[in-house]
Amino acid sequence: MSEQLIFEQRKYAWDYFTLHATQRLTTFNFYLVLAALLITGAFTAFKIDFLHPIVGAGLGLVLAFLSFVFHKLDERNRELVGIGEQALMFLEKEISSGLGSDQEPHVLQLFLKEKFQTDNLKKQRFCHILKKHLSYSDCFRCVFIMFGGSGLVIAAYALFHSLFC
Which of 16, 64, 120, 138 has its CA 20 to 30 A from that of 74? Predict the structure, then answer.
């Protein structure tokens, strides 16, 4: 391959990766803002002497629903980022085929090295969960579950209060 073709392919793959990685973080940030607004609205509905508990229940259900939707969006964004990573790893193998050993990629093979290290961390068994390697996906999933569950709890509490209090 010519150096110009390699450069163009790398730029194409890098731009694709950057676009979707940025989109993933932007989408997650937007979700956090929406979740904070919905929780604030729900607690405001409760604070006004429970005159509007159904509004709180509705906002809780919307939070749970949006948590599910944004989780699905994140899964799709993660797939698209992965496609960019695969392309960049392919180019790293092609460009610097003589650099790495069979065991561990060379320090300049950044995407291959990261995958190698992450795979090794996942193979290790830790007794304590805090020592375990957590990916962005793991952390995002925890946030989606936490806010989605909070939305369901808010909705249940509001409905219980409106029916029995």
Answer: 120
Distance CA 72, CA 31 (A): 12
Instruction: For residue 19, count other CB atoms closer than 10 A to its CB.
Output: 13
Residue 144 lies in a domain: yes
pLDDT grade, residue 127 (50/70/90)?
very low
Extract the tokens encoding 117: 């290290």
> Using 50, 70 and 90 to split pLDDT, how confident is the model at 165?
confident
Determine the Cα–Cα distance for residues 75 and 148; give it in Å rounded to an integer.
16
Give me the number of domains the chain comprises.
Answer: 1
Kindly tell me the burial class for residue 70, based on how many C-beta atoms sit within 10 Å of its own C-beta (0-12, 13-18, 19 or more). Answer: buried
Structural domain contains residue 126: no
Q: If you average pLDDT over residues 96-115, what whole number do you get?
A: 76
The residue among 95, 129, 136, 94 whose CA lies nearest residue 114 is 136
How many C-beta neighbours within 10 Å does residue 38 have? 23
Report whether pLDDT(130) > 70: no
Q: Let me know: does 136 contact 44? Beta carbons within 8 Å.
A: no
131 occurs within a structural domain: no
